Write a sequence for this structure.
């Protein structure tokens, strides 16, 4: 079983399983989704990140005990990934590193889209000079802002601007873009390949999971 | 279509298509295989590598012109990858970097197996301290040596030694291991995950190819 960690708190099973559902449908693998306790707003600054780290580690450890064979930290910032890798015996995949590694496999110029002020550190570290630009859709600080028609147009404009800067591929530095299905909109409208962070983490997780079944 | 470059010369279509066939069967994608001219022994030293580089670039360019949408250099040393990436507009995947990126996605200790004296530079560069050891099966300098029962036992012994050095995953730094189906033998006998270089390059290539079909 693939264990997927959401780094915020929700009681709503539909929201909890948003990423796991995408991965199950895309790759035909079972995913168990769990979230960290007592952080309904997730990680949004250094203090909230520091509070989340021990929770992510404890959750990952308990999911390994429950029988998970692969863990996924489903957040583009890869919070607690190094610490969790040291705390369990199974592989730990992060959304941010997974998306970056897919981009590295192609070796093409990458335009990064996110909702934070800057691209997550893990992306910059892995991709270095392959990144030709980072763009946050205008006025968007929350993925729900992208659900309106205006939001969708802003997202397309952001991707287009990155293409004009020389991006040969668009990379999502936010898993919230997956939830709203933005990759297919950009692929269809702009005919540009998109590396979706949830699809990327799912690809590596499913590959490892299937191998265990051979 | 995925274009796959073999970095040696063969007139035998069965041999030419060994890697492409694995990828087509594994991922359900079409692969066109081509080889470079006039180098039946492939790349085995600096001089033969220097001779091969312009041929790989010319072949990749002509395969793009023929309609390939993704290129794969199917050799664990990733020969000519940087130059070919600069010479075409489509993504170029290399067997060595692909396998390394899969290992990076897990973050686990890697034991590398190959038939050369040292691990290819691209692996060392990408994996750094994740590599716990490199091992060449005793007496093996050619993958056909592995086709005998003795060869198979030597390969298992090499993998086992890497596990004893702390490897949590075995990575093949030789595409010849794919041709003889060694990954499944090691997975079955030693219950250790194996990153097979042809499976890895195929995973990234198929992912990109399928995205273009959405």
């Amino acid at each position: 079983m693939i264990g997927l960690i959401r780094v915020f708190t929700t009681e709503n099973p539909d929201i909890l399983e948003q990423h796991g559902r995408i991965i199950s449908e895309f790759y035909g693998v079972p995913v168990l989704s769990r979230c960290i306790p007592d952080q309904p707003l997730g990680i949004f600054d250094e203090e909230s990140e520091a509070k989340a780290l021990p929770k992510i580690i404890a959750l990952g450890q308990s999911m390994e005990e429950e029988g998970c064979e692969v863990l996924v930290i489903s957040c583009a910032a890869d919070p607690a990934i190094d610490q969790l890798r040291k705390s369990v015996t199974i592989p730990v995949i992060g959304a941010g590193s997974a998306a970056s590694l897919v981009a590295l496999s192609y070796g093409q110029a990458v335009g990064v889209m996110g909702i934070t002020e800057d691209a997550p550190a893990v992306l910059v570290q892995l991709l270095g000079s392959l990144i030709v630009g980072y763009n946050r859709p205008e006025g968007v600080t929350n993925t729900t802002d992208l659900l309106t028609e205006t939001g969708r147009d802003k997202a397309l404009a952001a991707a287009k601007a990155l293409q004009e800067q020389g991006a040969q591929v668009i990379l999502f530095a936010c898993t919230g873009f997956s939830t709203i299905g933005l990759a297919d909109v950009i692929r269809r409208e702009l005919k540009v390949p998109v590396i979706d962070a949830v699809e990327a983490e799912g690809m590596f997780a499913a590959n490892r999971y299937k191998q265990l079944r051979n």
